[in-house]
Amino acid sequence: MSDKTNNNDISKLSFEQAIKKLTDIVSKIEDGQISLEQSLSQYEQGMELIKHCREILQKAEKKIEEISKEKEK
Amino acid sequence: MKDSLFDEPKEPSKPKAKIYTVSQITSLIKVSLEGALPGQVTITGEISGFKRHSSGHCYFDLKDENAIIPCVMWGSDFTKVKFKPENGLAILTKGHIDVYPPQGKYQFYAESMSPAGVGALQLAFEQMRNRLEAEGLFSEEHKKPLPQYPLRIGILTSESGAALHDIVDSIYNRWPVAKLLFYDVPVQGEGAAGKIAAAIKDVNKRNTTLKLDVIIVGRGGGSMEDLWAFNEEAVARAIYNSKIPVISAVGHEVDFTIADFVADARASTPTKAGMIAVPDIKEVLQQIDSADKRIKANAESAIKLSAQRLKTILAAAVFRNPLVIIQNRGQSLDDFENNMAESAKSFVANIRKVLQRYFEMLLKIEPHRLIADKKIAINNYQNRLSQKTSGLLAFVKLQIETQAGKLSACSPKSILNRGYSIAKQAITGKVITSPADVNIGDSIITELANENIIESKVTKK
Question: Which CATH architecture has domain B135-279?
């Protein structure tokens, strides 16, 4: 049950976690040995993860924040 | 020959030898030494018996194969020495020779020193490296893994240096999603090392809010002196103690600093920092695309496979021609129907047979004769019954009279006939059975036979 993650949970994952989960799903699916029903739910989850990862990658800010100033306050 | 030998010391014309005090002669030596030697000399030799006094002054000997010379270095001069003088180390030292009267010796006053052969900084660097390595600061086990996809990267360098732009560009060229957090610190000169170390500690302390995935500490190329801050122990320890993984990015490819050895990863130059710190977004996107394709392909093939299976199942005769089942059933239904018809027929036939038999039996019965027979029987019963009843009645009558006689003999009234009487309280009518039933003066009624009564009064009990 633990790998049943709903969409809300997926959107909270860090990029690192999401990529890891995605890689896991791909290898699980490609290993075979899972039922059609399971592979469909993995498919759905995989699609959500991909969406989430792409969203993160689209947020390129190219902004630099200075953090040394705060010290002087 | 013999005489002249003996005579000579007795020469009276010889002036009397001058007698010096110790101080006088020492002073003479001092002056002649100072006059004979250049004001500053450079000596090369091997350090021996090195001691640093608590005052900060250092005492040691310099020696070679044949000679030894005591040396002093004042604390104020010694602080400028970057490396640690060790026994056996060959050095070049600049200073002057002087006499030290209290101990009657001449000694060398070293004003500066450098290792012979290698540079002082080089030696200092090697000494620091050996010491920290022995302490385990460079151990692989201690190194933290770098995050694969850092989204918040701290950059600790000088605002004025070229390194900042090099680092920023090298990251954004590969991984424009990261947020860069810049911390301005001096990277050379007096106090730089302390400030770099403090900055590393500071971001660690504030990291619950800063949320840095990794820190890059660095500066551009320069002389060994320029890079020196990154060889200082304070920086090395701050990097070692950092909870956030640290990437060092100092100088050029050829420059190695202590920071490089302690850091969790080394970028050979600030321009290479991106290569070390971040993934290439193109590769990551490809990875995601590939995952996308593979998952889709797999789902498709899973569906295809299931569809294939379904097809195989559907190919079975039953599904190919569903009528088969109905036809089969229909046939058995027909069979059943036939059987039913057969058995119904024979059942009806049986019933018919039975009915026929009863009917024939019925035909054999003659009702009128049957009734006459019954009449005779009834008359018989009637006669027998009336005979029996009249006898029984006479008997019963007799029995009743006997019993009635016996019964009247038991009646209290019949006892009265025999001279007994019944006494009753006149008012209550209660039969008196004991003296307690009456009081003196009460009226008593005495019942006699034939319903006669006497009334009397109780006078005595």
Answer: 3-Layer(aba) Sandwich (3.40)
pLDDT at A72: 46
Judged by CB atoms closer than 8 Å, whether chains meet at B294 and A30 is answered as: yes
Q: Where are the domains of chain B?
A: 22-117, 135-279, 416-457
Phi, psi of B28 (to 5 degrees): -60, -45
pLDDT in tens, B316-362: 766 667 666 677 777 777 777 777 777 777 777 777 777 777 777 77
* Cβ distance of B149 and A39 shorter than 8 Å: no
What are B112's two structure tokens?
């500066």
User: Which residue of B153, B288, B300 is the best one to mutate when testing the A interface, meaning the one whose CB has the most A CBs within 10 A?
Assistant: B288
CB atoms B151 and A30 under 8 Å: no
Residues of A at the B interface, defined by Cβ within 8 angstroms: 14-16, 19, 22-23, 25-26, 29-30, 36, 39-40, 42-43, 46-47, 50, 53-54, 56-57, 59-68, 70-71
SS3 label, residue B324: helix
* Segment B279-300, tens digit of pLDDT: 999 999 999 999 998 888 887 8
Q: For B348, how many CA atoms within 13 A lie in the half-sphere containing its CB?
A: 6
Read off the amino acid at residue B5. Answer: L
Closest approach of A31 to chain B, Cα-based (Å): 10
Q: What is the ipTM of this complex?
A: 0.80
User: What homologous superfamily does CATH list for B22-117?
Assistant: Nucleic acid-binding proteins (2.40.50.140)
List CB contacts (< 8 A) between A62 and chain B. 172, 176
Which stretches of chain A score pLDDT less than 50? 1-5, 71-73
CATH number at residue A24: 1.10.287
Q: Does A60 contact B199 at a Cβ distance shorter than 8 Å?
A: no
Task: Give contacts of B147 with chain A, Cβ < 8 Å.
Answer: 16
Nearest CB to A16: which of B147, B199, B298? B147
Instruction: Note the Cα B292 to chain centre separation in Å.
Output: 31
| Phi, psi (degrees; rounded to nearest 5) at B213 | -85, -30
Which residues touch A43 (CB under 8 Å, ≥6 apart)? A29, B295, B296, B298, B299
What's the structural domain count of chain A? 1
Regions of chain B where pLDDT drops below 70: 1-15, 118-120, 317-320, 322-325, 363-370, 373, 404-414
Closest CA relative to residue B109, chosen from B95, B124, B89, B91: B95
**Domain boundaries, position A66:** 3-72
Whole-number pLDDT of residue B286: 93
